[in-house]
Write a structure and sequence with these properties.
311 residues; globular; mainly alpha
């Protein structure tokens, strides 16, 4: 197709390739680094897992594109030196890429569901695609709802692997899978929580453009300083949640407990300190990157957990 000839490197930046790599890493760790590494029964073959991951990445990339198309005016205000529909792409060509990636992702989802004999599962891909479109066009303007929706979609990168890997083989393997699935559910909740906090910080970054566009975000309602302090208080709640989780479920596992304290708790404490006194755009940009880094460390802890359980 002419649409994909001579794609420049800027295209991969356009679709947020770093975020896509994080999604791919997450799904690889869930499937290969956790379920299969622990010799648990799984339904996805290597080929089917590849199709699932590719469908997820295509839909996510399409979501980034449609969000940027809708945010052109806002981004010109918030980031005048950074264009999110870069040359040589126009809004029309960007929308064409959105359609191709979105249709391909949903189509791969239908193919996967057909190959596995679970046609109803295809609706998951349609739902995620639809939510990303509705989020970009409407829900992001609704106070906190948009933040929750996009955070839930991020967490679905874990959930969709759980559904396709475990549900088809659940009958007869309940005892083997109940605890591992509970762990993965906790990871999905953790991903939702951290991404929700990051969305709040990103709203602070984008407050000027959002105000001009009439978006009712938390920083516009409460003010930048109060929202920054609120993000610190939310992080404190997360810290005690992680510590409580370690105490209740992981205190017998010294290595994973130590990893979570070093990789999650201490960086969140640092986040609280920095957020409490953040004032400038560069401060909030740093906090957003810090939360993404904590998310990466959190996902990697799944591999650490697997190693401690195996050895």
């Amino acid at each position: 197709m002419k649409l994909f000839k001579n794609i420049p490197l800027t295209f991969f930046k356009f679709i947020r390739y770093k975020n896509l790599l994080l999604i791919a890493l997450t799904q690889i760790l869930v499937h290969y680094g956790f379920l299969k590494a622990l010799d648990l029964p799984t339904a996805l073959s290597d080929l089917n897992f590849f199709i699932l991951s590719l469908a997820t990445l295509f839909i996510a990339a399409a979501g980034y594109i449609i969000n940027d198309i809708q945010d052109v005016v806002i981004d010109r205000i918030n980031k005048p030196n950074k264009t999110y529909i870069p040359a040589p792409f126009s809004q029309n060509s960007a929308f064409n890429y959105y359609l191709v990636l979105n249709i391909s992702g949903v189509g791969l989802g239908f193919l996967l569901s057909y190959r596995m004999g679970f046609g109803n599962f295809a609706t998951l891909f349609v739902l995620i695609s639809a939510l990303l479109y509705v989020y970009a066009n409407f829900l992001k303007r609704v106070l906190l709802i948009g933040n929750l929706i996009v955070s839930a979609i991020v967490a679905s990168a874990i959930g969709i692997v759980m559904i396709f890997d475990a549900i088809p083989v659940l009958q007869g393997n309940e005892q083997q899978l109940v605890n591992p699935l509970s762990v993965l559910k906790d990871y999905a909740v953790f991903a939702l929580m951290l991404n929700f906090l990051r969305e709040i910080v990103k709203d602070i970054e984008d407050a000027i453009g959002d105000y001009a566009a009439g978006i009712q975000s938390l920083p516009i309602l409460l003010g930048l300083e109060r929202t920054a302090k609120l993000s610190a208080y939310i992080a404190v709640i997360y810290i005690f949640t992680v510590l409580g989780y370690i105490y209740v479920y992981l205190q017998a596992n010294v290595w994973i407990s130590l990893y979570l304290v070093i990789a999650i708790v201490i960086p969140l404490v640092f986040f609280c300190i920095k957020a409490r006194y953040a004032e400038k755009h560069k401060h909030f940009s740093f906090l957003s990157k810090l939360l993404k880094f904590i998310m990466l460390l959190g996902i990697l802890s799944l591999g650490v957990l697997t190693l401690t359980l195996k050895y």
